[in-house]
Design goal:
alpha+beta, 4-stranded mixed β-sheet, 5 helices, globular
């Protein structure tokens, strides 16, 4: 029997905001999503613009408790907010990987490889 996944509640009002964010994804998010969707990374299921607690993360895998954030120019002015947000979610057991918008857009395969390496290092190869 597999261990029970910890469910992190979220604010219901974030669902409509997340839907709007999915429709206005950045080019880097769009490129990265092409490689994350449909369990392409070691069979793990990722969601995009996922509400968690009182925040929305760019990508999230509930089986790994892993949030992936793509930091574009808007994050240049929210460094303190991002640190507090990340710390609160880490306190709930969420791990973070951060990549630049430019890296996600122009070096997508490298970013996907980094994500896969992180999973293998922290969780090993999944069993079929």
């Amino acid at each position: 029997m597999s261990p029970r996944r910890k469910i992190i509640p979220y604010r219901k009002e974030l669902v409509s905001i997340a839907k709007k964010l999915r429709k206005s994804s950045t080019p880097g998010e769009i490129e990265l999503w092409k490689g994350l969707k449909k369990k392409q990374i070691l069979g793990y299921d990722f969601d995009r613009q996922k509400p968690i607690h009182k925040y929305i993360v760019d990508f999230y895998c509930k089986d790994l408790n892993l949030a992936i954030e793509i930091d574009g120019r808007s994050h240049d002015f929210k460094i303190g907010y991002d640190q507090v947000r990340q710390q609160e979610l880490e306190n709930l057991g969420v791990s973070f990987l951060r990549f630049s918008e430019s890296g996600a857009k122009h070096y997508t395969q490298s970013v996907l490889t980094d994500i896969e390496r992180w999973i293998l290092k922290n969780y090993g190869r999944p069993t079929p």
